[in-house]
Every structure is written in structure tokens, then in C-alpha cells.
Design brief:
Blueprint (H helix, E strand, L loop, with lengths): L1 E7 L2 E7 L9 H9 L9 E6 L7 E7 L4 E2 L3 H13 L7 E6 L2 E10 L2 E8 L22 E5 L2 E9 L3 E6 L5 H12 L9 E9 L2 E8 L3 E3 L3 H13 L6 E6 L2 E7 L6 E6 L1 E7 L3
Parallel strand pairs: 2-3, 4-6, 11-12, 13-15
Antiparallel strand pairs: 1-2, 1-18, 3-4, 4-5, 6-7, 7-8, 8-17, 9-10, 10-11, 12-13, 13-14, 15-16, 16-17
The protein binds ligand LBFN2T5F.
The site of the ligand N[C@@H](CCC[C@H](N)C(=O)O)C(=O)O has 18 residues, from α2 and α4.
């Protein structure tokens, strides 16, 4: 099976072009194997680039390192867009890509025939508690108390197609991310588990984020998470609608647009190498 390793600000996945390769018999098991950083390729998960069954240019299927499938992946979608363009599946500067959160439009900045940066319309955030889904109080739950591993946090929950729990903190330390990430991910208040963002506000237009991802643990970046942070910052009155988010692997530009209610996310997409995975 031919694969390509790609990364978006350090959030790295193994990508398989299912326009050419057969859809894997057991994608969950394959995700676990390829993601292993010692015995596999090494990645935060597996992304399958498939023909769309809804008339889009391609369909992204995304599996975390633990084999669970997610509805959406913001950094992954930029890389899918780059792959679809650069590998000639559709050589257009604007693409429509199918995800578990509907068909999303992406705009590519192309230099010397290759996509370098991608702007994704991430769609409208989902704010109703039962659709996020969460049992936290409030709809949307903004600045509400959550207890995990014996500690109380003030959190805001948002779905960008996948669930996020945003926590604004004075310092996003190892103690918080590594000590509480998994406990919050698996809290009974989130029936489908949750991605967790620990966020420092640097100014009304600038934040720093660390991410504990559902199914993959700490990653260098999370695009849906950065989008959820943009929304949570506005809902909780901490930040403006346009922010720069500094993640461990690099920066993303975000805007929660007042006119259409959609979140726009811009950042790089990079191809690292290709190889063959034994079947
Ligand atoms: N890193 C991704 C999100 C990947 C999926 C997430 N772990 C989930 O289970 O929802 C991103 O860039 O959005």
C-alpha cells in the first residue's frame, strides 16, 4: 500500500490515496499500526483520501492513533487539499472536500505548481450541548465548572463537527496537559469523549494553545481545536473574532466571521515523504 506522510504545523498523519489504492479492510487496525512511532511509520493517525459519494472533489476519512474514527480534522483537511491538488486528483485552487461535518470549501495558495498554504471554511460551530455532545450545563456551555482527577476547571465546550473542551489557563503546563488531558478526554460529561485545549490568552488577538487529542494524546497542533478556541474566546469575552493561535508546531490564523457565522482557518500543509506499507 502506497502512503504519503504529511504534516500541518507538526500534526502528522499517514495519508493513503484511495482513488488508487483499495480502501483498507480494517482501517482502525491499520491506523494503530502505521501511527506507532517505534514499530510503524509514526504519526498522529491515518487519513484516507477517497472518492466522494456526495459530489465533492474528495472525501476525507480520518482515524486517530487509537483506531477511533473522527468526524473532522482541521490540519488534515489542509493536507488533503494539498494532496488532491498537487497529485492531480483535481488541479484547482478551490476544492470542495467531504468530511463527517459536511462538504467544506478550501482555497489554496499555489506557488510553482504546489499548494503551500490553505484557507479552510470550517463551517459554523455547533453550540447546542446535546449536539456537541456534552452533559455540561448551559447551551452553549460557557465558563462552566468541570471536575476531573480531583481538580476543578472553568471550561467552554464547542463542536467543530468533533467535540472540544476549551480551558483558558494562566500557563499551559505539562502538569495540566499530561496530568489532566486524558481524564478530561474520558470524562462522563462527554459521551463521545472530547479533545481538550489548554489556552493562554496573550492579547485579544493572540493566544497560545496546547492540545490533548481524543484518541491520540498530546499533539503538536489541532486545527479543529484552534477553531474551537477562536469561538470559545469570543463566547467567553476573552478574544476578538480574528486571532493568531501559536501551537507547539506553528501558527494558525483564525476568524469567526460575523456575517456568515463560519470559522475560517489558514495555515501551511507540507508533504514529508512517501513509502510502501507491507500488506
Ligand atoms: N488534529 C485534528 C483533529 C483530529 C481528530 C480528533 N483527535 C478527534 O478525535 O476529534 C485537527 O487538526 O483538527
Amino acid at each position: 500500500m502506497r502512503f504519503t506522510k504529511m504534516q500541518g504545523i507538526g500534526n502528522d498523519y499517514v495519508y493513503v490515496n484511495c482513488f488508487q489504492e483499495p480502501f483498507p479492510r480494517d482501517p482502525a487496525e491499520l491506523a494503530k499500526q502505521v501511527s506507532d512511532r517505534h514499530f510503524g511509520v509514526g504519526s498522529d493517525g491515518l487519513i484516507l483520501i477517497c472518492p466522494s459519494n456526495q459530489g465533492a472533489d474528495a472525501w476525507m476519512r480520518m482515524f486517530n492513533a487509537d483506531g477511533s474514527e473522527s468526524e473532522m480534522c482541521g490540519n488534515g483537511l489542509r493536507c488533503v487539499a494539498k494532496y488532491v491538488h498537487d497529485h492531480g486528483i483535481k488541479k484547482s485552487p478551490q476544492l470542495r472536500l467531504q468530511t463527517g461535518n459536511g462538504i467544506l470549501t478550501v482555497d489554496l495558495e499555489v506557488k510553482n505548481g504546489k499548494a503551500e498554504r490553505v484557507r479552510v471554511n470550517m463551517g459554523k460551530p455547533i453550540l447546542e450541548a446535546e449536539k456537541i455532545p456534552t452533559k455540561l450545563v448551559g447551551s452553549p456551555p460557557v465558563n462552566v465548572t468541570l471536575e476531573a482527577n480531583g481538580r476543578q476547571f472553568e471550561v467552554t465546550a464547542v463542536s467543530m463537527g468533533n467535540p472540544h473542551c476549551v480551558i483558558f489557563v494562566p500557563a499551559a503546563t505539562d502538569e495540566l496537559v499530561l496530568g489532566f488531558g486524558r481524564h478530561i478526554e474520558t470524562s462522563p460529561l462527554f459521551p463521545k469523549r472530547v479533545n481538550v485545549e489548554f489556552v493562554e490568552v496573550l492579547s485579544r488577538g493572540e493566544v497560545r494553545q496546547r492540545t490533548w487529542e481524543r484518541g491520540s494524546g498530546e499533539t503538536l497542533a489541532c486545527g479543529t481545536g484552534a477553531s474551537a478556541v477562536c469561538v470559545a474566546g469570543v463566547l467567553s469575552g476573552r478574544t476578538d473574532r480574528r486571532i493568531v493561535n501559536h501551537l507547539l508546531g506553528g501558527d494558525l490564523e483564525l476568524e469567526w466571521n460575523e456575517q456568515d457565522g463560519c470559522v475560517y482557518k489558514t495555515g501551511p500543509a507540507v508533504e514529508v515523504f512517501s513509502g510502501d506499507w507491507p500488506e
